[in-house]
Amino acid sequence: MTVRREPATPVLTVEDLSITFTQRGAAPTRAVDRVSFEIGAGEVVGLVGESGCGKSVTALAVMGLLADRNVEIGGRIAYAGTELLGLPRKRMRDLRGADLAMIFQDPLSALNPVVPVGRQITEMLSRHRGLRGRDADAEAVQLLGRVGIPDPERRLKEYPHQMSGGMRQRAMIAMAVSCGPRLLIADEPTTALDVTIQAQVLELLKDLVETEGTALLMITHDLGVVAGLCDRVNVLYAGRVVEAAPRHELFGNPVHPYTTGLLRSIPRMDGDRGVPLNPIRGSVNDLVAWADGCAFAPRCDRYELECLAGTPAVTELPGVDHEHRCVNPPGTPAVVR
Amino acid sequence: MSLLEVRDLKVHFPIRKGILLRRIVGYVQAVDGVSLSVDRGQTYGLVGESGCGKSTVGRAILRLNDITAGEVRLDGTDLAGLSTGAMRRQRHRLQMIFQDPMGSLDPRQNIESILGEGLAAHGMGGSRRERRKTLIDALDAVGLSANALARYPHEFSGGQRQRIGIARALVLQPDVIICDEPVSALDVSVQAQVLNLLEEIQEQTGVAYVVIAHDLAVVRHISDTVGVMYLGHIMEEAAADDLYAEPLHPYTKALMSAIPVPDPEVEAQRERILLTGDLPSPANPPAGCRFSSRCPWAQSTRCHDEIPALIEVRPGHRVACHWVEEIESGEIRPHEVEAEMVPASEIGVEIPTVEPPAVP
Fold first, then answer.
1. Do the domain assignments include residue B196?
2. Which residues of B touch A224 (CB under 8 A)?
């Protein structure tokens, strides 16, 4: 495989993506609200946020895995210049698995329990690369070896339940990269794993991005994982990107009170132990509709009346590629409630 | 004497085969010789990866698992030797907070009934009015209002449900609360609320905690003493600050270096000890040191033959490793370790009470 570097068009462009779930007899739920980001080849972009912020739904929309009914998708998703929304189903099936691949959080439910792992990989190889029989088996062995599974020939015939959690996640990564995708989406790939196994899997993903030039969309709630892996980070809250910046800029100079709140509320291995944590008050259920103002306002320390005067606009910090969506960012005097 | 003392605790689960006879073909040594002690107002943190036996220790302290050998002394009384009835009378002094706040609250009971059940079972709480007052006080202590009493678990968010779980433990005014993964099912912003709450409660009531968690940062934050478990053994035990400032056991070093820190500058500079392979099966642990199959510092043949004892190597800092000093002085260098496969037949072994890791 050749190493691709910095092509003119980004591998993935998401522009003003909105996803609304409609249900008869109930008010529609907007899960994703005008989200935009780009990923270039060999780049790792993180989507960070807590449960219900819309990060997984965004991934499913990119993969074309959302149902047709009861879902309204607006905006634009383009893969290397090809518009994915509205693409004929057959074309999408050709792309999915070959050019776009996804790793799920829980490998046990993502893998088919009654099919040997090897067959699940060769299925991909025959569908997209036309490999059959021994050729496909040989390629699958090579892929399993590539993701660090010892004794891959034997593992080929085993079922998912015979493998440990870390092995299963490796097998799923092997499936995802089997056809050399240019875009890989990893949805909480290490959340179900132990820390020592998590470190192994993250190292593997990092290595794949570096050697193959794959674009990686990393979805996680763990800011530690983001700090070690992502080039650029998008922080989501209630379906919107509230802050986006390159990694060093975001962690060095976080602006949005939600980002700073998240960072201050995590106990850190290298932090001061005696100091109590600074939690964000309330929970994600305390919400204001984005149309009426900032959704984070009910939980925010810097909340002011102007926070509820319509959707907060995006502010760009000059020269550092850093944008946020806060009406009253730190630096301006805070009103204490 | 400490409030709670666990001495040489062993919990072995039989592995049975066959349909009719259910012959015992072996044992899973989930906990194999664990000792720890907690004082009033103190917190003991037990960390380790899934399957290391940390939850089994917690459950064995409450005698929710049968104890194979060893002592669990609460104020000098050995709980392991008590009859079922006598144990039941002691149980209000020991309470537990569970990982999954939805799974541990009965969806068809309202909060008043959930919180009051313990009082009724132990014949405590006095009249109905007094009992209600106790429940409202407990709710107040966890930051919930009295109108929660008439509501049902599904009406609350995950963080609030965990608060209810904490209130249920508090109602009986226990001496010790076992917290099994108290925050791992919660969102990060809510985790901090619950951790702060646990600390506040301890300051006010002087309750002792045994906190069981896989997240080292959480354990470090809340604990006074931390024990690191691996395959049923405590590998290292020290005051939280000492352990994190100077981890001495190779497993602790690897575990701590594997935890991502939310700071890219720190991440870039950190030295990683990447362990190869998986946790061996507790049904067939490596001979000698339990960590020897994955240890980058393992020396043949002593590490593979002899189980290292937990020895005090610095004041208050105990380590179970044959080569602590040699590793610290750099005399023994780390080497490559071949990833060892855990035979498939062993992974299928049913290990009771070991929950899967948290999936938020």
1. yes
2. 259-262, 267
Strands A44-48 and A215-220 come out as parallel
| B158, B221, B263 member nearest A273 (Cβ) | B221
Which range is least confidently modeled, A122-131, A266-275, B177-186? A266-275
Whether B214 and A195 lie within 8 Å, measured CB to CB? yes
Residues B169 and B295 in one domain: no
Instruction: Work out whether the CA dihedral A286, A292, A297, A303 comes out positive or negative.
Output: negative
The range of the structural domain enclosing residue B312 comes to: 250-343
Confidence of residue B94 (pLDDT cuts 50, 70, 90): very high
How far from B65 is each of A103, B30, B350, CA to CA, in Å?
Answer: 37, 11, 15
| CATH number of domain containing B203 | 3.40.50.300
Give the gap in angstroms from C-alpha A66 to the nearest C-alpha of chain B.
Answer: 22
Number of domains chain A contains: 1
Q: Which of B188, B338, B342 sits opposite A265 (nearest CB)?
A: B188
Which of A2-11, B40-49, B153-162, B256-265 has the lowest average pLDDT? A2-11
Closest B-chain CA to A269: B217
pLDDT at B350: 42
Q: Give the structural domain span for A171.
A: 106-178
**Statement to judge: residues B176 and B270 lie in one domain:** no
Which has the closest alpha carbon to B44: B230, B225, B233? B225
Same domain, B197 and B136: yes
Beginning with the edge strand found earlier in the chain, give each strand of the sheet holding A26-39 in spatial order. Answer: A26-39, A12-23, A71-79, A82-83
Distance CA B168, CA B95 (A): 9
> How high is the ipTM of this complex?
0.81
For residue A183, list its beta bridge partners.
A100, A215
Judging contacts by C-beta atoms under 8 Å, the chain A residues touching residue B261 are: 224, 227-228, 268-270
Close Cβ partners of A55 (under 8 Å, ≥ 6 residues apart): A47, A48, A49, A187, A219, A236
Please tell me whether residues B218 and B257 are part of one structural domain. Answer: no
Q: Which is nearest to B144 in space by CA: B87, B193, B80?
A: B193
* pLDDT score, position A213: 92
Q: B171 with B261, same domain?
A: no
Section A9-17 average pLDDT: 93
Residue A148 has pLDDT above 50, yes or no: yes
Chain B contacts in chain A segment 179-208 (CB below 8 A): 191-200, 202-203
Mean predicted confidence (pLDDT) in B285-312: 91
Do B218 and B254 reside in the same domain of the chain? no
For residue B14 the two structure tokens come to 């039989």
The pLDDT of residue B17 is 85
Tell me whether residue B257 is in a domain: yes
Q: Identify all chain B residues contacting A157, using CB atoms and an 8 Å cutoff.
A: none
Q: State yes or no: pLDDT of B349 exceeds 50.
A: no
φ, ψ (nearest 5 deg) of residue B217 = -65, -40
Residue linked to tokens 């690897």:
B254
CA distance B269 to chain A (A): 10
- What is the residue-wise DSSP string for B72-96? EEETTEEGGGS-HHHHHHHGGGEEE
B274, A50: Cβ pair inside 8 Å? no
Q: What is the total count of domains within chain B? A: 2
d(CA B273, CA A200): 10
Sheet holding A183-187, edge to edge: A100-103, A183-187, A215-220, A44-48, A232-237, A240-246, A322-324, A315-317
**A105 contacts B187? CB cut-off 8 A:** no
Size of the A and B interface in Cβ pairs below 8 Å = 167
Q: CA–CA separation, A189 vs A221, rounded Å?
A: 11
Is the Cβ pair A50, B218 closer than 8 Å?
no
Q: How far apart are CA B163 and CA B150, in angstroms?
A: 16
